Amino acid sequence: MILNTQKFLLKNLKNTRKLLNIRLLSTVGDEKYKGNYDVIIAGGGMVGCTLACAMAKNPLLSSLKVLLLEGSPDKKFELKPEYSNRVVALSQNTKLLMSSINVWQHVENMRLQPVRHMQVWDACSDAMISFSSSEILDDDVAYIVENDVLLHAVNTELNKTNNKNLDIVYGAKIDSYKLPTSTDRELKSLVKLANGDAYSCQLLIGADGANSAVRRAMGVQYVSWNYKQMGVVATLHLAEETENTTAWQRWLPTGPVALLPLDSKRSSLVWSTWEENAKELLKLPEEQFVDALNDALWKQYPRSSAVDACMSWVGGCLRGAGLADGAARQLPPSVRGIAPASRAAFPLGFGHSTRYVAPGVALVGDAAHRVHPLAGQGVNLGFGDIKELTELLADTVYTGFDITHPDWMRRYESERQKHNVPTQLAIEALHRLYTVDFPPVVLLRSIGVQVTNALQPIKKFVMAHAAT
């Protein structure tokens, strides 16, 4: 009797699940319903495509039926002689991730530039901090790679996987999402495209950027603000040919200006400044723009004599203790010109989703968090999400649990927020600390920089955190 009752309940449970899925698809015509997947990755780009590649390469996840919805068209990539104006600074951990899925070899076969030194200094006080590859066991500080080069490298390996369980839809414009609720977990997520095509899945992953539609469909709180700043980018031609493995960043009262090495003759510019100033910079003739940039790198800004006196005293104390006082430094390069049509600008902002997961849904990359580019950490945080998500999901599959089991999803959210939130707050604090020129604040931050630069254990801790 008890056995018959259990069979009856189990049969009704299965029928209920079927009815729920029928109800889910009732709003979609049969001719437009394209199929069900274990995982749908909404959004391609560097993060979404890398996640798809990492899942296809993982032996425990390669059996999952995965659909990647890439908003961009499938177009042929051509490596041009001139560099793109959009680049990323990849950390050591990102390099390890890319190497583990055989992507890094494709990047090396195209082009990248190692950063072996980094020098950051304050225009209001000349307080400086420097980093060197020799301080991190001879590993490079970072690697400068063009966005489209990295994306092509990922797509090259993605197309070589021969994984029959991975499908890609290019030019996918998503119209709407229907997600399962906390009380209705057996209902799958439904993704409808603008052309009417629809797909369902057990696990939906939002990799669709800062304006994530997946995040909006989740209904989670998103803390965000606009800095009223823009990042001006360009490809620069240097006045002199050098080894050029140093990244330079000078903190101006309006925001940081950074030169990232590309090769012996060229660097990439990321100049964060107020919106009105950015628009004016874009309008300037090339020669005037180059003059403005050289001024930003070399110009002597108004200084406080009291701050200078205090910094001189701090430097003397450091020298007396046998520590580096920051006086020895390299001079940044001068800029000779810019590559034609390479100037552009993009808005800067902060964003953080209070939740990274919901029943059957997870967020990665800019869909979960957005930071100021001053530390070059934005995309590295996204690649860190990928590493954590694929490892935890693989463990879940190995132990036989469902791929939407709340335990691994909560752990993913917890582990990534423990890393991402402190990083975001530190970057936010730096931005706010350096966009004021009030002398007491200048003195406070300058002393902090000088002392940090003098103490190797603190510098190594900062570099180790940035590398993860």
UniProtKB/TrEMBL annotation:
Subcellular localization(s) per the UniProt record: Mitochondrion inner membrane
Catalytic activity: a 4-hydroxy-3-(all-trans-polyprenyl)benzoate + 2 reduced [2Fe-2S]-[ferredoxin] + O2 + 2 H(+) = a 3,4-dihydroxy-5-(all-trans-polyprenyl)benzoate + 2 oxidized [2Fe-2S]-[ferredoxin] + H2O; a 2-methoxy-6-(all-trans-polyprenyl)phenol + 2 reduced [2Fe-2S]-[ferredoxin] + O2 + 2 H(+) = a 2-methoxy-6-(all-trans-polyprenyl)benzene-1,4-diol + 2 oxidized [2Fe-2S]-[ferredoxin] + H2O
Cofactor dependence: FAD
Cited Pfam families: FAD_binding_3
Single GO MF annotation: 4-hydroxy-3-all-trans-polyprenylbenzoate oxygenase activity
Gene Ontology CC terms: extrinsic component of mitochondrial inner membrane
Predominant subcellular localization, coarse grouping: mitochondrion
Gene3D superfamilies assigned to the protein according to its UniProt record, in alphabetical order: FAD/NAD(P)-binding domain
Keyword NADP part of the UniProt annotation: no
EC id: 1.14.15.45, 1.14.15.46
Membrane topology: Peripheral membrane protein
InterPro entries from the UniProt entry: FAD-bd (IPR002938), FAD/NAD-bd_sf (IPR036188), Ubi_Hdrlase_CS (IPR018168), UbiH/COQ6 (IPR010971), UbiH/COQ6_monooxygenase (IPR051205), UbQ_mOase_COQ6 (IPR000689)
Every FAD-binding domain range: 199-280, 354-419
Biological or metabolic pathway of the protein: Cofactor biosynthesis; ubiquinone biosynthesis
Alphabetic keyword roster: FAD, Flavoprotein, Membrane, Mitochondrion, Mitochondrion inner membrane, Monooxygenase, Oxidoreductase, Transit peptide, Ubiquinone biosynthesis
HAMAP family, A to Z: COQ6_monooxygenase (MF_03193)
Family: Belongs to the UbiH/COQ6 family.
Function: FAD-dependent monooxygenase required for two non-consecutive steps during ubiquinone biosynthesis. Required for the C5-ring hydroxylation during ubiquinone biosynthesis by catalyzing the hydroxylation of 4-hydroxy-3-(all-trans-polyprenyl)benzoic acid to 3,4-dihydroxy-5-(all-trans-polyprenyl)benzoic acid. Also acts downstream of coq4, for the C1-hydroxylation during ubiquinone biosynthesis by catalyzing the hydroxylation of 2-methoxy-6-(all-trans-polyprenyl)phenol to 2-methoxy-6-(all-trans-polyprenyl)benzene-1,4-diol.
Subunit note: Component of a multi-subunit COQ enzyme complex.
Protein name: Ubiquinone biosynthesis monooxygenase COQ6, mitochondrial
Gene that this sequence comes from: coq6
